[in-house]
What we know:
Strand content: under 5%
Radius of gyration: 26 Å
Order of helices and strands: HHHHHHHHHH
Amino acid sequence: MEKLGAFLTGKFMHSVLLLLVxxxxxxxxxxxxxxxxxxxxxxxxxVDFIVxxxxxxxxxxxxxxxxxxxxxxxxxxxxxxxxxxxxxxYNADVALLKTLRVLMVFRIIVFFPTMKMxxxxxxxxxxxxxxxxxxxxxxxxAFSIAGYYLFQNAPGDSFTTLGxxxxxxxxxxxxxxxGNITKPIVAVMPESWIFFIGFLFATAFSFINLLIGIxxxxxxxxxxxxxxxxxxxIGALGQ
Length: 239
């Protein structure tokens, strides 16, 4: 069992799984673009069956070998759920379950340490991102109300209701149709530029910089964590 476990987590199986995941992604793409595979449908279906079979066997062996430890690694659970859904969808021809196979593409992340570290950093930064979004929502709400009371009768109909005001400000933050929204208002209310510039500084510029800062800090923390784990492994091998 130990040898089989070492094989399943070894470099060779690592490469095989990467190949299977990539093949799965290619098959899904080809299936969506049927004109490219016209005349090769049976071959694609056979390759698809082989990929699903090998993935299913791999997961079954990992469950048998590692038992309850199998679920200690989050990606194992991910593999089990997605491949089980894919097998059921393949046999029952359920479109929704077959579509779930596209999630296997995200498995590629695990095979590349840099990509994996970025995802870990994103997860680490999740609380900070959520807090930033809450702050942004409060700012948006305040500016939407202010925009409604200040510009509800202004030309352009961009602030006639609270909802429209919110949508218009969202467009402004993305610099989408900026001139068409602001010019009619500035033409009759020259001092209104203060409102729009203040809003952009409070949202677009500040929010983006805040997110960058949170993500950079998260990457630094994840990098330190990985470095510490490597030092511990080296220390253990030295003993």
